[in-house]
Write a structure and sequence with these properties.
- The protein is α+β, with helices and mostly antiparallel strands.
- It has two domains: about 50 residues; about 140 residues, no CATH class.
- Helices cover about 40% and strands about 25% of the residues.
- The strands form two sheets. A six-stranded antiparallel β-sheet has the order 1-6-5-4-3-2, sandwiched between helices. It has a two-stranded antiparallel sheet with strand order 7-8.
- The longest helix has about 50 residues.
- The protein is globular and about 75 Å long.
- The termini are far apart.
């Protein structure tokens, strides 16, 4: 009985060895192709949805809708020649802004530090002072505290003062460039607001 069992087992083992060898080859090929396929599909997903990883990711259209309670006025165009000075990277010669109810809204993209990515911010100006400041898109790994309500309310009521603003804005450890970026943007928003017709 034992020998019969051994013979049956060894015959089955010989038969399955060939099958196992073919199966192993197909598994190796599948295993090698899986990382390539998954890497390609992960890269495609990352390119499509990278925005979901940003700490702040508000589209300008959504921001404007919130500022104007869903009634966004048509954009107007400001001539920016010489208005930003050395505060920000050169602005386009003509920059869109929105005006309604005695307020202007300005949206800027600016880099806080060379080699970093643009930060997008929005500023509402009323009566020559900052009414509100918002961080719309922030892509950096550090310094996202500039988008918190506690930090942003330091800009409320800020007016021009020389090349800066008349409010003291607390620095954030590890985010000095981002803080300075916000102050520069606020100053440019005030300068542009003063330059456009009421």
């Amino acid at each position: 009985m034992k020998s019969t069992f051994r013979n049956l087992f060894s015959i089955g083992a010989r038969k399955s060895a060939a099958e196992h060898s073919a199966m192993r080859r197909s598994m190796v090929v599948a295993g090698l192709s899986f990382p390539v396929v998954s890497f390609v599909s992960m890269s495609a997903r990352a390119a499509e949805g990278l925005e979901k990883f940003y700490k702040y990711n508000v589209k300008p259209e959504e921001y404007l809708s919130g500022v104007f309670a869903g009634q966004v006025p048509p954009p107007q165009v400001a001539d920016t020649a010489g208005k930003s000075g050395d505060l920000m990277k050169p602005l386009p010669q003509r920059l869109r802004y929105w005006r309604a109810n005695g307020r202007t809204v300005w949206i800027f993209d600016e880099i806080g530090k060379a080699g970093y990515l643009d930060t997008t911010c929005g500023f509402v100006v009323k009566g020559g002072a900052i009414e509100s400041a918002s961080v719309l898109i922030y892509r950096e790994s550090r310094g996202d505290q500039i988008g918190t309500a506690g930090f942003l309310q330091q800009f409320i009521g800020a007016k021009p003062a020389g090349a800066g603003i008349d409010k003291n804005v607390d620095n954030i450890s590890g985010a000095t460039y981002s803080v300075n970026l916000m102050k520069r943007m606020a100053r440019v928003a005030l300068a542009l607001d003063a330059s456009v017709p009421a």
